[in-house]
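[step 3/7] inverse_fold.run input=structure_tokens len=602
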């Protein structure tokens, strides 16, 4: 069967079970847009190419499948570089297809020419410039294989216009062996000897902490993580990218560590004698000053990407492999060493107090395991002494934390929460309770302002049956709010809560604490723009909330809207800061719990 390259491209996406493409047409990609009319694939027309990339990310976050975006050459392609970089930092599988000028014009500075494969080489797992239409099915199959296996990430396929118009003989690769991926062999199984050494370290530790990163979610290992924690009685911290990987309601959950993590999570890592790092990369926002991070801890580091092992912190045991498979291997090794499995979450707490699994054989290595009771008692003391706190005074300024808590309590437990970047992102992660995986979507590594609105649209498309709330800041919202036009036109009923403090809040917080309150270029104004009118102009429902008493009724109204987007302008306290906080470059021991603690919380 003969097809054009453009037809082959769309048919290849159909073969990969692609449901939706987020995109914006232009000259170089125009041939590919024609066969979309005959395809079952849904196309969502965005208002800016950056939005297409973030929508693909949001879709991938909640479904685990690669999101697909398609844009034209030149500025269309460069506009999607930010989502590619964001996806690379957070290991999000997306496939971006860009149009390119005809092959004969490449290198001539033709209209809307850009060497996008060169531009994106460092922010993609791999990219392809297709020069022969016959290669299109194979390249598409390779792109999805690379994006979704090993450490997931973004890929890009650049298709010149003449290649899209050329004829080819249709085929489809029947197996991975037919792909041209020399040297690409991601490891999945852990080294059995290393796994056994890790199990022995776990049985020797008296102050262990499981350090769960985003790789746990990428590996679909939430159930295995819970089983490991319950069998061993080891408490779990979940990084910003791992929120939801371990239930916040679980008695072994410590919450988020890092620069704005809670005191217990941060300090437990600092005082630990063993860190079991699963799919985590020892990010600087978690470690603080690296030389002072967890100084007494031995480290077990499990990651599917060998480049992460030893990059920041040397580990006593390094295991390259898929987190789900390695945790399974570790559980089997622990069982072989005599550590029996508690049957309930409460039994896990008992195991933590006793230091061993229920029914450990008397002569097994597990029987000599140190008692974890004192460690758990210390953790409970920290939790009691240093909880997350704020005060919503009657008649006082509206606190952003209060908005997050009321929103949390008035929505289903499995609501998908999407955040932008800044103070509101931290408050959302701190004060929401995440008991289900894939219900938290945010930009972690790149910290991309403007992420929330388009990513929430992608998330709602991927999970149409779930309620989706974006918690955004006024600064972030203004960067990509035009995508609400997309949501309105496509009847995608996302809901956006703007925590409007009239500032670039996190920058203002740093200027207040570290720049002697010299507020340089951070004021945005609470009234310019008028968010309610802006929302209405984009086809959304707009609501303004100025007091604590108005919060619950307004959220109830928003939850009842199912046929269009909702934008809520919460006028929050401009002076509220995110605590706890570890100053940049400082040790985690220097954590500031809040203004009442002065220099620190220790």
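[step 3/7] decode complete -> sequence:
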């Amino acid at each position: 069967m003969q097809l054009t390259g453009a037809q082959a491209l769309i048919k290849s996406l159909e073969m990969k079970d692609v449901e939706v493409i987020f995109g914006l047409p232009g000259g170089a990609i125009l041939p590919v847009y024609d066969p979309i009319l005959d395809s079952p694939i849904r196309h969502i027309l965005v208002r800016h190419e950056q939005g297409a990339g973030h929508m693909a990310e949001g879709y991938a976050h909640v479904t685990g499948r690669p999101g697909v975006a398609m844009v034209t050459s030149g500025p269309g392609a460069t506009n999607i570089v930010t989502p590619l970089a964001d996806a690379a930092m957070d290991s999000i599988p997306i496939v971006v297809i860009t149009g390119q000028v005809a092959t004969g014009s490449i290198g001539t500075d033709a209209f809307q020419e850009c060497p996008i494969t060169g531009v994106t080489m460092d922010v993609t797992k791999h990219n392809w410039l297709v020069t022969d239409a016959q290669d299109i099915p194979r390249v598409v199959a390779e792109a999805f294989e690379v994006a979704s296996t090993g450490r997931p990430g973004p890929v890009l396929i650049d298709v010149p216009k003449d290649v899209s118009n050329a004829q080819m003989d249709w085929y489809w690769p029947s197996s991975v062996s037919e792909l041209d991926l020399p040297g690409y062999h991601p490891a999945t199984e852990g080294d059995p000897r290393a796994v056994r050494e890790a199990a022995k370290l776990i049985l020797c530790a008296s102050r262990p902490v499981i350090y769960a990163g985003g790789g746990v979610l990428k590996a679909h290992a939430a159930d295995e993580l819970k089983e490991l924690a319950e069998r061993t009685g080891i408490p779990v911290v979940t990084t910003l990218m791992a929120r939801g990987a371990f239930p916040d309601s679980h008695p072994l959950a410590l919450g988020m560590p890092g620069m704005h993590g809670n005191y217990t999570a941060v300090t437990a890592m600092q005082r630990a004698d063993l860190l079991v790092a699963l799919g985590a990369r020892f990010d600087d926002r978690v470690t603080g000053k690296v030389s002072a991070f967890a100084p007494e801890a031995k480290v077990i580091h499990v990651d599917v990407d060998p480049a992460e092992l030893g990059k920041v912190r040397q580990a006593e045991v390094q295991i390259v492999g898929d987190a789900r498979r390695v945790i399974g291997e570790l559980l089997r090794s622990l069982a072989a060493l005599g550590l029996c499995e508690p049957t309930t979450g409460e039994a896990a707490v008992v195991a933590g107090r006793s230091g061993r699994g229920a029914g450990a054989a008397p002569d097994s290595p597990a029987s000599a395991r140190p008692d974890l009771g004192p460690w758990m008692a210390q953790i409970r003391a920290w939790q009691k002494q240093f909880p997350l706190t704020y005060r919503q005074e009657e008649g006082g300024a509206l606190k952003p934390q209060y908005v997050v808590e009321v929103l949390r309590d008035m929505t289903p437990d499995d609501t998908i929460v999407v955040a932008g970047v800044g103070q509101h992102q931290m408050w959302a992660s701190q004060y929401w309770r995440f008991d289900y995986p894939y219900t938290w979507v945010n930009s972690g590594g790149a910290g991309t302002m403007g992420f929330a609105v388009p990513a929430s649209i992608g998330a709602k498309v991927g999970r149409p049956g779930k309620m989706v709330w974006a918690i955004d800041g006024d600064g972030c919202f203004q960067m990509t709010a035009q995508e609400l036009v997309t949501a309105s036109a496509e009847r995608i009923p996302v809901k956006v809560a703007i925590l409007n403090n009239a500032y670039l809040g996190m920058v203002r917080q740093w200027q207040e604490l570290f720049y002697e309150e010299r507020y340089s270029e951070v004021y945005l104004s609470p009234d310019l723009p008028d968010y309610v009118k802006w929302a209405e102009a984009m086809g959304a429902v707009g609501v303004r909330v100025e007091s604590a008493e108005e919060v619950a009724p307004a959220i109830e109204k928003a939850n009842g809207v199912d046929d269009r987007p909702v934008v809520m302008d919460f006028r929050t306290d401009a002076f509220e800061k995110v605590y706890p906080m570890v100053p940049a470059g400082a040790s985690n021991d220097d954590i500031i719990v809040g203004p009442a603690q002065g220099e620190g919380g220790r």
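[step 4/7] annotate
Residues 597-602 have pLDDT under 50 and may be disordered.
The first strand starts at residue 2 and ends at 4.
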